[in-house]
Specification:
Layout: E1 5-9, E2 15-17, H1 20-26, E3 32-37, E4 44-47, H2 49-60, H3 67-79, E5 81-84, E6 90-92, H4 95-101, E7 106-111, E8 116-120, H5 121-153
Antiparallel strand pairs: 1-7, 2-6, 3-4, 3-5, 4-8, 7-8
Helix pairs in contact: 2-3
């Protein structure tokens, strides 16, 4: 699993060192990662072959010509980049992705279990706080619903 958050500096060639833990999970079969614009957030999403295959399976659930299939194909297939690791464990992010998400200096690599995301560091800090609040409120609502179900069942 991709776990934890790492803050890394993007160099002037748009290279970042991918944490060793992430490299070990994503390296097979070609010694790198797949990256594309994330669907649910304004950042880059990345992972290994397993992530790419999971998206492929999801896309194939929809018939050719379905608007959702087309949208997913455009984002995932059309936006995908295979980024190989250099000898120092770095990847070079495509300039277009850096421009799209404002990646210029410090970035946050965020493990999300089956995938990771690359954010501008300050944008991720704000996103993390919003997600923490959403998680707190969502969990409280979930627990209230569970208590209500138990009360109604009794």
């Amino acid at each position: 699993m991709f776990l934890s958050t790492f803050e890394k500096q993007l160099d002037n060639k748009r290279r970042i060192v991918v944490p060793a833990e992430f490299r070990a999970l994503a390296a097979a079969p070609f010694g790198g990662v797949f990256c594309f614009p994330a669907i649910e957030a304004d950042c880059i999403e990345g992972g290994g072959q397993a992530l790419f295959q999971r998206y492929q399976s999801l896309i194939e659930e929809f018939a050719t010509g379905d608007p959702l299939r087309s949208a997913l194909e455009t984002v995932v297939y059309g936006g995908a980049n295979q980024l190989g690791f250099d000898s120092a464990g770095r990847i070079t992010l495509p300039e277009a992705l850096c421009e799209q998400f404002g990646l210029t200096d410090w970035v946050a690599l965020v493990g999300l279990g089956d995938r990771f995301q690359i954010w501008p560091r300050d944008a991720f800090r704000a996103h993390r706080e919003a997600q923490r609040q959403a998680a707190r409120e969502g969990l409280a609502a979930h627990r209230s619903a569970q208590r209500l179900q138990k009360t109604e069942a009794a």
